[in-house]
Amino acid sequence: MCGFATHNAIGFEEKPLLLPFIFHLEAQKMQVSAQKVVFIHYTLTNEEGEKIDSSDGHEPLAYIHGHGNIIPGLENALMGKTAGDKIKVTIPPEEAYGTRDEELIQSVPIDAFHGVDEILPGMQFHTDTPDGAQLVTVVGVRGNEVILDGNHPMSGLTLNFDVEVTEVREATEEELAHGHVHGPGGHHH
Ligand SMILES: [Zn+2]
């Protein structure tokens, strides 16, 4: 004899239950999917393993999934993940900031720059185009001509992301209307 314990057909030892006994359904963690607000910590490195950017020492980055807030390759990699998940993903230029387009390198007269004492390579300017604001980078100055590169500074790069999902929550109606997250890690206005 062994007290109240018995063995069933699969050898599982049944112990007497202490009543009252209530079962609570284990809460399902919310998954990353369209319209969810997602918080991530990330480190971005290039193909040589050099750190380009990181959320270290900052609030986690907050974005609304499926709204183009972050690059497509990272959005795809995060689909279905939950808080606590860690992923490493390598993203080609086509799913990151695009391939380089040499036609976006243009020369403009230096007179087009108002209120700038000296134009130096590496300086960035915004210019208004029919498609909206475009960021251009000065790549050189020749006499009275400034050579500008309209490619995104990270175009043509394969990017390695090391990401941890810290929180997934529903977006508010206001966040969906604005197309961005409000509060820590998002917009304050
Ligand atoms: Zn807003």
Would you kindly provide a written description of the structure presented here, covering whatever features stand out?
This protein is mainly β. It has 2 domains: 36-98 and 155-178, Chitinase A, domain 3 (Roll); 102-149, Beta Barrel (Thrombin, subunit H), CATH 2.40.10.330. Helix content is 7%, strand content 35%. It has 2 helices and 11 strands. The chain has helices spanning 72-78, 173-178; strands at 6-7, 13-14, 36-45, 51-54, 61-64, 86-91, 105-109, 124-129, 132-142, 145-149, 159-170. Strands 3, 4, 5, 6 and 11 form a 5-stranded antiparallel beta sheet that branches. The protein is elongated and about 90 Å long. Zinc ion binds at residues 178, 180, 182, 187, 189. Residues 178, 180, 182, 187, 189 line the site of zinc ion.
Could you give a quick summary of the protein structure above?
By secondary structure, the chain is mainly beta. The protein is built from 2 helices and 11 strands.
Descriptors:
binds zinc ion; mainly beta; Chitinase A, domain 3; 189 residues; 2 domains; five-stranded antiparallel β-sheet; Thrombin, subunit H
Instruction: List the ligand species.
Output: zinc ion
Distance between the termini: 72 Å
Q: Tell me about the largest β-sheet.
A: 5 strands, antiparallel
The residue-averaged pLDDT reads 89
Q: Radius of gyration, Cα only, in angstroms?
A: 26 Å
> What is the third-level CATH name, the topology of the largest domain?
Chitinase A, domain 3
Label the overall shape.
elongated
Secondary-structure element order, as H and E? EEEEEHEEEEEEH
CATH architecture of the largest domain: Roll
Strand coverage percent: 35-45%
Indicate the CATH class of the largest domain: Alpha Beta
Beta strand count: 11
Total helices: the number is 2
Percent helix, as a range, is: under 10%
Broad structural category: mainly beta
Give start-end ranges of low-pLDDT stretches: none
Total tally of structural domains: 2
